[in-house]
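FW: tagging you since you asked about this chain on Friday. Here's the raw sequence from the shared folder, copied in full. Didn't touch anything.
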Amino acid sequence: MEFLGHRLVGRDAEEAKLSALAAAAARGSGQAAFIVGEAGLGKTALLRCAAAGAERTGLKVVWGLARELDRARPFALISACLGVGDAPVGSLQARAGDVLRGEARYGLPGASGSVDFATVEAMIVLVEEMCAQGPLALFLDDLQWADPASLWVLRRLVSSVGQLPLLVVGAFRPVPRGVEVDLLSRGLGAGDHTVLELGPLDASAVSLLVAGVYGRAPGPRLRRLCEGAAGNPLYVGELIAALQREGAITTHGTVAEVAAGCPAPPLPMLITHRLAYLRDEVLQVLRVASVLGTGCTVRDLAAVLGGPTHVLLTSIAGAEAAGVLADTGRSIVFRHDLVRQALYDAVPGSVRSMLHIRAAHALITAGAVPERVAVHLLEAAPTDGELLVPWLLRSALQLTARAPALALRLLGAALDVTDPADPRYDELRLHHAVAQLSSGLLAEAEESARIALARVGEGGLEFVLRWILVQAAFARGRPDRALAETRAACRSAGVSPLDAVRFHAFGGVCLFALGRLAEAGAVAAAARRAAAELGDGTALAYAFQVLAAKRFLEAPDFEALELARQASRLTPETIHPAQWLGLQLALANCYMDLDLIGDAARTLAGVRERAEPLGGVFLPWYHLSCALSAFHGGRWQDAIAEVEAGLDPGVHFAMSRALQALAGLIAVHQGRRADAQAHLADASAAQDSGTVAWFYEYVLLCAEALMDEAQGHPERAYSRLAHSFDSGIGHLPGELILSFLTPDLVRLALGQGDPVGAQRYAQAARSRAEHSGAPYHLGDAHRCQGLIDQDPELMLQAARQYREAPRPLSEAHAYTDAAEMLAMRGQLCDARVLLDQGLAIYGRLDAAWDAARATSRLRAVSVSRGTRGPRNSGRLGWEALTVTERIVAGHVADGHSNPETATRMCISRRTVSTHVSNILRKLGMTSRVELATEVIRRNGSAPQPPAEG
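HL: got it, structure written out here
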């Protein structure tokens, strides 16, 4: 693509569109666009033109260029674009860099084929905070070479771009194009982005381009010759340049012409022709630069070439003057990737390998981050381990934490070139197994550790390898295998007292997951004593975890809660942060079940601060816990927002099943049958094999049973629930884990003519309530007995307990049950009052199905609802906003970014983003600016700080 004056030739429509998008982003309405076209059609020139225009419009412009060499390096493109790599301490970029390094994630089970969601989130937070400082534009070129993690960040940014004063413009070729680029450009909603497909220039534009390049209008033969370039601006430019170098163009006044029969060589030949005119020393520099890749620095080149810098700079200046390199002032950038490719193809494979080795040496000497070294070693494919093995043994920990898939490939290569008799071989095997674990290849990690263990025998690396076996087996839903490994470790002759107590304590965790509660309790009690004697926080945490969970299932009282609190008092400094998060999430769920809502909220707020930079299974577990808390408290829109925030990491970390099931459960209650069926189908299809997910299988059970009832099959719902209550869910005892379902079981049992079963379920409810004394549990016990005795007073007692908890859905059920009982006694006026109370709660929840069912039941006993109060039946407009959404809107009006709002409200940034999207949708708006203006208008003055309560 060439410029005529200050504008591009033949791209007026595209320029105008990008200019309009930039203007909209500057006004606060974020926009995204993708430029797609074959090589040489001018994507980069159009990007540069649009970037200059965006800067004139008032946007801060940042530029990113994807490199083929960096495809294996996670977040390479986006971190370079945002300046994360070399950011000063304390800056916004430095915080994202801390998460990118990921030291705390080393050795944690990952998810196969997934990106690191903690770093994805950190990059998005960085973009949003940069947007809070002023409108921002991201221009990203050559996306066909972008690493998948950067594309994931980009996809997330584009999907919510309307919330921010942000312009995202990316360019890529249609070929080659990976699956990730297809997901980016095709997987987004049509309204999320604009696609500009660049086609060839038409004949008039080609003539104009020739005139602009040569300074004369083309004659008939030159015009026909240039039209043979298929409207490709690069091809036209190279053709004219080659003709000029050969003196083949003659001028006649204002017309330029060529001789008859002059051929139009193919584009690669024309590029080679341009390179042939360069001096040998310049060509040598360019060939090395082509191997190191676009974006390498002068320092990188100097280190590999080994010559004086001033000579190198002279060669670079010559290449820039010849139109081979672009003058960026910062790094080596080829004018076009086709030029780089032509140079690269001219370098023999053995020479390329040697250059990559030299680049790796130079980067190691300069102290570069390990993944930059790794991509060169990967390209070099060394046939010996002279450089690779010692460097890997020093850098495997860092590399695995930051780029486990890249570490895995290099470690595999190192094992291939290392003699098994080499004493370093077993250490490489250990690092390889850790990289498999971190990459989510859990079965493979288990097998690798087992093979390595057979080689090393007892002592040495034995216990590290055994921990890999245990963690891999447990994470993939095989606590039985993990238990066998803990016992084998404890029997080993060389086990230290510290390792023995840790393995023993984790054996208790495995036994609990297997539902062998008595054994788990005995093992945990013994481990607790031994860990206290040794002063080991890790083993003590495992022991408390088991003792608290066992007690809470069997007798959910304050003794159980105190055990959970003791476990949570172990700080992240004395145990691994991941272990601490697991304990905190378990404690938060205990608080929720005992109706200690404030304690649960504070605990979850602390979890969020630690889970977001750590990632892994803890992100979806956190969001699921928040969603359940919101659901029980009657904040169903908040629950749905948490579900949406948790689904992406949930799919990858085997926690999506319960999230989808909860969304389906709410949809059934709200009468959205099609949505419910879709959510339940997704939940059923989810392969959640992780051990943590087992403890939330009850959510899907509840949703499926409610769907049975909604479809008119109460007998199927009863059979489903009763079977699970008696037989358990997986390894977990049903009577203990499903005691919260007792009111539904009693109701369905009575409806199916099973009074004996109803009594049994009521007894389970009474037993739980006697232990805990929690309002919710007392309400369940009262409601169960009230259903059996058909006693409206017991129902009203249940309603009072539910209101105290609070559990508004259960409270509404109790009112409508009591109304039906009173009606059957002929107390129709009292029944109508209670029906109205229940329907008012259903209305606040938008529980249309429950309201219709209650109305139908009461109509059958001659009770209809009384005077209808005001109710917002629509889901659009200001009145449709929930309390949380109004608080979020207030923060937007105050100019707070999503991350800042999240911190102030003690919720996640993703949840805030979901709320903002919902607010904009309900109000029919497209930007935060519109929302802020509306909030200020409604307040009638300057915005005030929103209430947090």
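FW: Confidence is low (pLDDT under 50) at residues 1-6.
HL: agreed, and The first helix runs from residue 12 to 26.
FW: great, closing this out.
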